[in-house]
Amino acid sequence: MRRLPSLKNLYYLVHLHKAQNFNRAAKACHVSQSTLSSGIQNLEEQMGCQLIERDHKSFLFTATGEEVVGRARELLAQVQELTDLAQSAGEAMSGTLRLGCIPTIAPFLLNRVVKESQQRYPDLTLLLREDTTENLLSMLGNGELDLLLLALPVDTSGFHTMAVGIDPFQVVIHKDAADQVKLEYEDWPDESIFLLQREHCITGHAISACNLQNREKINPFAATSLHTLVQMVDSGLGSTFLPQMAIDSGILKGTELATYELEDQQAFREIGLVWRQTTSRLKTFRTLGEMIGDLLPSKGE
């Protein structure tokens, strides 16, 4: 039987591709740079092809190397799932689960998710990671995460999604300007609506769900967090739209802000789970999704 490439060397290759630097990749793998370089050279010898073109100052991945990296990511993710399955001894709600979550959900929901999980499933350990949707999807595809908790819809091509509930939006405005809420959006002052930076998917969800067609009403200043939005509006500079879960978590405590429900019943973001289609932990993810749905303002259909 032909000698197969080692998983360790494939792991080195994937991290080198991610870091695009031998020193950083070696640190990420907790090995010396020479060990990582030697491992990749051994991998090339075992596979009988060149994966990286090198000179004394730089390197680049060959076309074959790029393809091998993609296949190696999938393989390493499957090996991790196989290991998790073995460690849980066939018990769905046990073992370790690496869960990623976006910043507009994590501060308001993850604490309750962890506590409820510990109570219902004491043998299941959740390892948490907070990041943007784009980065989390990349980590899921690379096998660095097992499951994502996101706001939908987002482009999840190649992954499976499960809607677990909805999170309604509410208008948030200073109490002294509350009369503005009675007006149609078209009659609000220009640049009076504050939203998050574009990389936060909640901005697109709010624009779509709240039907904010007139972009002149949106202030060009873009906040980096919901807490910053609250501070801007509390200063009397305008208004914003916040998800119910943030309001329920006390984000407006200590402010002079008022909340108002939107007449449009479709003004909400959908909350869902995302996982790889090749996973062997389908029962685990679905069970966890049902539990999370119980914690949301409105459970999905």
Description of the structure:
One of its GO terms (cellular component) is protein-DNA complex. Belongs to the LysR transcriptional regulatory family. It comes from Ferrimonas sediminum. Pfam families: HTH_1, LysR_substrate. With 301 residues, this protein is an alpha/beta fold. The protein folds into three domains: 7-85, Winged helix-like DNA-binding domain superfamily/Winged helix DNA-binding domain (Arc Repressor Mutant, subunit A, Orthogonal Bundle); 99-163 and 274-294, 3-Layer(aba) Sandwich (D-Maltodextrin-Binding Protein, domain 2); 166-268, D-Maltodextrin-Binding Protein, domain 2 (3-Layer(aba) Sandwich), CATH 3.40.190.10. The chain contains ten helices and twelve strands. The strands form three sheets. Strands 3, 4, 5, 6, 9, 10, 11 and 12 form an eight-stranded mixed β-sheet that branches. The protein has a two-stranded antiparallel sheet with strand order 1-2. It has a two-stranded parallel sheet with strand order 7-8. The longest helix has 25 residues, at 63-87. The protein starts with 6 loop residues before the first helix and ends with a strand.
